[in-house]
Design brief:
The complex is a heterodimer of chains A (251) and B (317). The longest helix of chain A is centred in the middle third of the chain and has 31 residues, at 98-128. Chain A is 77% helix and 2% strand. In chain A, helix 1 (3-14) packs across helix 5, helix 2 (18-40) packs antiparallel against helix 3 (55-84) and helix 2 packs parallel to helix 5. Chain A has helices at residues 3-14, 18-40, 55-84, 87-92, 98-128, 136-163, 167-183, 196-204, 206-219, 225-247, and strands at residues 46-48, 51-53. Chain A is elongated. Chain A has a two-stranded antiparallel ribbon. The relative contact order of chain A is 0.15. With 317 residues, chain B is α/β, with parallel strands linked by helices. Helix content of chain B is 36%, strand content 28%. Chain B has helices at 45-52, 74-78, 96-106, 111-124, 140-151, 170-185, 197-203, 221-228, 244-251, 274-288, 302-311; strands at residues 5-16, 19-30, 34-38, 60-65, 68-69, 81-84, 158-162, 189-193, 206-211, 214-219, 232-238, 256-261, 267-271, 292-298. In chain B, helix 3 crosses helix 4 (111-124). Classes of the chains: A mainly alpha (251), B alpha/beta (317). At the A-B interface, helix 1 and helix 4 of A face helix 3 of B.
């Protein structure tokens, strides 16, 4: 069996807490069904990318991508567990390279991110009575958005996990960053209605592009290629930063 | 590097900023031997292991492990070694047996072989009682046993043991050491660090004593004891139990390096001249009206040689 696959399997078995995973799934569903229905009564359906959506449905697509950022944080947690429990050095003294190890963490994160997103999607959309017009190209865009988004946030979590000195600080900083990404993205509202400062931050935010691409793929609206380019560039940049930071970990 | 060598180190240096952790050490380890690396805290033992296991790059010098260069052929080395670190290392989300299985899988050991080896190791390391216990709930000693046993799930030519028995009770420790000996007889080479000098004496074929990043001496335990075990222990008991006056009198003789009474009541006198100290003990006891009930010269231990080498700064000659 390939070394990376073996490590991915080990990461999934050893470092993932089932209870935490359960709550990571509950979290977006809570947004969809509580916030979505609560605000759905006062927010009229509006047009996004040429498609008219109700607020619960708009939010549902955004909340699915919440799973992406959640599972991204998991990458940092996996690294912290391994460092705290001595498995980081143990694995690096085994028949692996550092690149294989970091890639295995990202891939394990991808598995959780994509599986979690699809699960949330599978639960939420039938309940909302939505009709997703998924074409093969739309499906490809959905997967690409989830892939790039998870890669970005996984790399981001690894970079800050390496930079910070304790797991407690990592939890605090990653939670803060989580809310900054979340509330300045297009998960809860279309940024074009927001004040210019928030719109500016939103335009830099990879979660905005992940969410918009996911919605576009899902509802069959036009896929903004520029968004894809920006998200891909941000992901490559963040992955490079994570690798750079990872190489500097002192053992 | 000749094929019979497992490790060959020449003028190895490791600096962390201004601090020199390893200062031009050189040594060789033969295949099939247990090579001990002894030294006080901060002597450079763990840093040496981290370089030999390719976790750290040396600042200068050369090191070959199993014929491969630590700088450029790290993966080739790591595929052929096992490491039991000084620090704890465990997968916190797994139970004991599952963690051994996942570890074997990570090393690409076939499933049937993993099962066979794990069953054997669980029995050999007395782990039946906690085979299904989550690793996070294990005691320090149980976790240590798991950490050592786990390393034998996969094949290796050379095993690095960095204080592997810390936290183990005496009975388990002896079992573990005997298991190591058995594996050495089957052809395994072991690089071993420990603070427990009796262990080193029991297990090691040769020992390097390190201090402040330098190798002080290399030799067999017997040779080191013979050459550097200068201080001997004279142990005696008084029929009356204890006497502060007697201890003070012997202490004033100028022959004693150290004198103390242990919990059982036995006095232990460290001296380089036991033949002069014994009559002095009898004379002092007579003078004070006390009776010496037993007296003998204890055998020189590796600890005596180690203390001489480290505290007197003896250099390799």
């Amino acid at each position: 069996m390939n070394a990376i696959i073996r490590l991915v399997y080990r990461n999934l078995r050893a470092n993932l807490d089932r209870l935490s995973l359960f709550f990571e799934l509950i979290f977006p569903l809570f947004f969809i069904f509580v916030q979505g229905y609560a605000l759905g009564g006062i927010v009229q359906p509006f047009e996004v990318g040429g498609v008219t959506l109700s607020y619960p449905l708009f939010l549902a697509a955004g909340a699915v991508t919440l799973t992406v950022i959640n599972s991204g944080t998991n990458a940092g947690t996996q690294l912290w567990f391994d460092r705290k429990n001595g498995m980081f050095e143990q694995i690096l003294m085994g028949p692996f390279t550092r690149a294989q190890y970091i890639l295995s963490i990202i891939l394990a994160t991808l598995v959780i991110g994509i599986a979690g997103s699809l699960l949330v999607f599978g639960i939420a959309f039938p309940v909302l009575g939505a009709r997703a017009t998924l074409t093969p190209s739309g499906l490809a865009v959905v997967f690409l958005a989830l892939f790039l988004g998870t890669m970005f946030f996984g790399s981001f979590a690894i970079a800050i996990s390496v930079a910070l000195r304790s797991s407690e600080t990592f939890q605090i900083v990653s939670t803060f960053a989580f809310f900054v990404f979340l509330f300045t993205s297009s998960v809860f509202y279309p940024p074009e209605f927001a004040p210019p400062a928030i719109r500016f931050v939103s335009n830099l935010n990879p979660l905005t592009y992940t969410t918009d691409l996911f919605r576009a793929g899902l509802f069959g609206s036009e896929v903004p290629l520029l968004f894809l380019g920006v998200l891909a560039a941000e992901t490559v940049g963040m992955f490079a930063l994570a690798v750079f930071a990872f190489r500097r970990i002192r053992v | 590097m000749t094929p019979e060598l497992a490790i060959e180190v020449k003028d190895l240096v490791k600096r962390f900023g201004e601090k020199t952790a390893i200062d031009r050490i050189s040594f060789e380890t033969k295949r099939g031997e247990v090579f001990g690396f002894l030294g006080p805290n901060g002597a450079g033992k763990t840093t040496t292991i981290k370089i030999l296991t390719t976790l750290l790059q040396p600042t200068s010098g050369t090191a070959n492990v199993l014929g491969y260069d630590v700088r450029t052929q790290g993966k080739m080395i790591r595929e052929r070694i096992g490491v039991v670190q000084q620090q704890d290392s465990f997968d916190q989300g797994l139970r004991t047996e599952a963690s051994m299985d996942i570890y074997g899988l990570v090393w690409d050991v076939p499933k049937a072989e993993r099962r066979r080896r794990i069953a054997e190791l669980i029995e050999r390391f007395d782990m039946q009682d906690f085979r299904n216990t989550p690793t996070i709930d294990l005691s320090a000693g149980q976790r240590r046993r798991l950490q050592v046993a786990r390393e034998f799930v996969h094949d290796m030519e050379l095993l690095f043991l960095d204080e592997p028995t810390s936290g183990l009770d005496a009975i388990v420790r002896r079992k573990v050491l005997d298991f190591f000996k058995e594996k050495v007889r089957e052809g395994l080479t072991i690089f071993f660090t420990t603070h427990i000098l009796e262990e080193a004496e029991y297990l090691c074929d040769r020992i390097a004593v390190v201090n402040r990043g330098r190798i002080v001496q290399i030799g067999t335990p017997q040779n080191l004891k013979r050459r550097f075990g200068r201080t001997k222990a004279v142990e005696f008991r008084l029929l009356e139990g204890s006497s502060a006056e007697l201890a003070e009198s012997i202490g004033r003789s100028g022959l004693v390096v150290k004198l103390h009474q242990d919990q059982s009541g036995a006095y232990k006198v460290m001296t380089s001249k036991p033949e002069a100290v014994i009559p002095e003990i009898y004379r002092a006891a007579d003078r004070l009206g006390l009776t010496v009930s037993s007296i003998y010269i204890a055998e020189t231990t590796l600890e005596d040689a180690f203390i001489t080498l480290v505290s007197e700064g003896v250099e390799e000659g």
